[in-house]
Amino acid sequence: MSRIDTIFSSGHKAIMPFIVAGSPNIAVTEATIIALDSAGADIIEIGFPFSDPIADGPVIAASMHCALESGVTPAHAIGVVSRIREQVQAGLMAMVSYSIVRKSAGTDFIDRLAEAGFDGVIIPDIDTPEAEILSGYCANIDFAFSMLVAPTTPLPRIKKLASLSSGFLYVLARTGLTGEQSETPDVSARIAEIRSVTSLPLAVGFGISTAEHVAVVHQSADAAIVGSALVRRMEASDDPALAAGNFVKEITP
Fold this sequence. Notes:
This protein is α/β, with parallel strands linked by helices. The protein has helices at residues 3-9, 26-39, 58-69, 74-84, 98-103, 107-116, 128-140, 155-164, 188-195, 211-220, 228-235, 240-251; strands at residues 14-20, 43-47, 91-95, 120-122, 144-146, 148-149, 169-172, 202-205, 223-226.
């Protein structure tokens, strides 16, 4: 059983913070992962900086731009995990564009992630034919492979995406770009619909910004993903790692 499967098998409702590797620098990323783990994060998503972020709002896009301007590469992000893996109990997921994966021959890139200590990968812009290849490969090495489901995705398509996924299915709470929201997401009906076609754990992201949002998501889903709100807190702090850890404590029920 993979680390991601073990986390969800307990029935515990998970907190999944998202950070951008290398923003503001690699040393801060290392410290932040350790701080998030100590604060109780169950799974940490590590975004690989990319020049054309997919569906990312201004906060995360700016953070990725900062990392790229600092010269951060996929090798840097992988190196961070390799160095701190033994200190961290949380699951670690790579969030990475397919163009980066493709440049490294697909399965070779997956091997590099796994060898460094990642537990799985989310490739938000991958097409189904390519996903079928990588999904099968990840299944063979017990490496989580999570596809995204949009609010507009029809049920037959969800069933297909779920069949390609392992670990959990990533459910978008809203259409559009990521970003902090004031309104509490109402995802219960959508989660019930998705559960009719898959038994995979369901993790909800996009606009999850407060402790109230997390609590509402946890009523029906298995995990709450928090990105922009966390990244903004880090950018506004003189001690980003400390701010990240404190924020996770703040939003954890």
